[in-house]
Amino acid sequence: AGCTPSVQPSVTPSATVTPRDFTVGTSGPIHTADPAIALADSDVLIATSVYQRLMLVLPGTGELKPDAATDCIFTSPTQYECTLPQGLLFHNGNELTSSDVKFSIQRALRFDTAGTSTSMLSSLKRIDTPDPLTVRFQLSYADNQFGYGLASLAASIVDQQTFDPDTALPLASAPAGSGPYQIEAIADTGVNFTRFVTYVGPLVGVIDRIRLNRLTDSVAGESAIADGTADMIWRTLDPAALQRLEDEIKASTTETTAQGFTRYPLSGSRITRLLWSADSPLRSNATLRQGVAKALQQDRTLRSVVPVGVEGAVDAFEAGGRPKLPTIKGDRITLTLAYSPSAPGFADLANVLRGRIEELDKVSVRLVTNGSADLVLTDAFAHVNTAMGWLQAYTDSPLPASHTRIDQLQLLARTTSGDQRLASLAQLQQLAALDATVVPISQADGILMMNKAVTLVGQPFGSGGELGLWSIRHG
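^ that's the sequence the OP posted. Answer follows.
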């Protein structure tokens, strides 16, 4: 009998799946990686991990610590000296010296971008660099806040050989910083980071590759959690999405969502305020400013421009009750109120605020999401988590009638200590309530969801409260 030989089926090799990079999702738009002009949330997050500063502030305590410097001390009442360690390098291999520090700070001061932290360096007279490792700051007065200014984003150190002294860095250009992470590629859709293996400093990263992914909105953030395309979600999620996720966590025996996500505790770190634009022609109307502040009184949960928990905070604004609204004289007024649609829950909140403010007789409010406006809704963290850092939104744009008094109180707060300093801070907060150019609204928990395999170690956040990529551990 003949036998039919068996035919072996061909085997198609399985496709190799390339694991994705560790991914942080956020809805904030990406505009720049230049620290001298960075204002938006995502831009600040990028700059926080890409650049070093001489000092850093621990956001939870307000404590000042060295970053790129080994130490910074007052060698006289008006001389502040910082020492750099040996071996500091930029991402491109160029050596980081005292000359780069001088260039970087002078560049930021020359740009003097509104809304940045440059005013925290206002006592600076001159920078001397006697050798490559020494930076000597000559001050116009004994400023107890100067070290905090050196921890703020405007004092980020850039490579003077690659940064233009007068022109901002284009978005498409990968910058040379010296921070724990360097940029491999950057666009308005996201950023690819790689760990800087020769980094020298206290904020050492561990994960080799991280992707910051720009999400369109809260729906995209919730979807990224559900389908596992992100390991962390920073901000992004609106109140309804957060509630759904937290309900899921509470109902679970594992205390996670079905996809294994938990909420990281960020107690009281989201501060919502309403700011009058300095160039608004309606800002000079004192009755209108007070009317807006009073109209929001019944919903207010934060009573000062300085949040609860920050040393020196005092109650200055009225909250709750049934405030008597002032009468607005003259013709009907139309206010424009701007908000960022990428800020979680701000579309709904802006509508609520509009309704409250329109309870003022003869006042209408038009909502906008871009361009100039009379009022701006913001949840931006202070450049440093100190009373002076939070007061900056008020003190940087004084009303003409308050300018002199603000300068006097600022000088007292920056040159005294103990009860005298606290009294100056209290008076500044009370004056802020009278002027009502910065109106506090609420203090709530920050938003950070992360997979159960993810942990944050050491100092997880930068001086301005932004997520530090260096702190992330996975698995």
